[in-house]
Amino acid sequence: MEFIRKTISRNDMLSVLRIHPFSFMMISEFFSQFAFNMQHFVLIFVIFELTHSNTAVSGIILSFTIPAVLFSLITGVFVDRWNKKNILFLTNVLRGIFLIPFFLPNLHVGFIYTFTFLIAVATQFFLPAESAIIPSLVPKSLLFSANAVFSLGIYITTLLGYIFSGPVLLLLGKTYTFVFLASLFFISALFITLISISKNNKRKKIKIQTTPSLTYEAREIFSFIRKTKKVMYALTMLTIAQAVIFMFAVLAPGYATNILKVQLESLSWILIAPAAVGMGGGAVILGSIGKKFNRKWLSSLGFLLAGASFIIFPFLSKVTSHGFVQFLNKILPLFLNITSLHIVVVMAAIMGFAISLVFIPSNTTIQIETDESMRGRVYGLLNALIGAVSFLPVVLAGGLADLFGVATVITGFGILMLLIGIFFLVFE
Question: For labeling, which of 106, 126, 266, 327 is most exposed (least CB within 10 Å)?
């Protein structure tokens, strides 16, 4: 019976991929997310190489997060009102257009921040629309599996985007790298046009004489979240997890150069790629057996694992100097000797797995517990919360790292995540 249940779960994931509208969306997501993630890392490379400052890297992260604070809740309202397929198409086209100024050589840092900001504004419409459209493409019985496949696709493209960001930048140079990224956004928009939504899955129009005001619709979503604790917990977990990811992105260049003593371009292979592999593995596992476990418990476990990983990261040299590790290195062949980089790869994969434990169950909870008529607003609020919560810590992360060192700040983040995980377990 256990074998049959697992087989059915795997078949659910295959069944989701056989749904053509969902498959076209996943193909579009591949190009879009590949471009988006590579763009993130390339911009971090460019800014760090121009300024050699963790604080300046904070600026590029803030260029992405400030629009979330300013516009996400409003864009969520419009996502609920507008055709989500059209939103996905137009936002991909706009993001491609906003990359065109990066074709110019030696673009000033101020312009880099400005156009990054504009890309982020378009993304505030894209993010709630991509998550909110999934229940319109698949039946409710396949929603958990659809989220697992969707997350797996994101993690694979995150893996590819971050792995190839350094090599592509070295191979093509800055100008042609941005030409390549813009082209990917345009290809993604093309595949969006192939998506067809069944009339049965389209939003039921509510008979009202006038369109509710933005203020009314915003109040409605806050009232709903206060009454629905499952959604409140899910939003809180996703907000904190994404904020920590942003903070670590600020510290990653300094971590690579100051602690690991490696070239900045190597970071994508050593840290980001293993984390994405861990995320993908988590998505596969949750897609098969995730429905058997309490979603909130899985997310709490994710925080605990991620916190432990962060705490270990700065102390890898001490781990490799431990007597047991040295003993293993003496008896192992030279090419199998354990180094700090090996442990970084393992811990990054564990961290990626932990992040999947937070993201997949929490997103599934939001999609199950919210009606289609307000799902865009919920995800808009999520993006606003992420931007608001991330703003000060992201600024402080770069400044504190420049003052006290990257290791101290990363350890502090790890302790904070452990405490958050314990909190959510206790207050079940």
Answer: 106
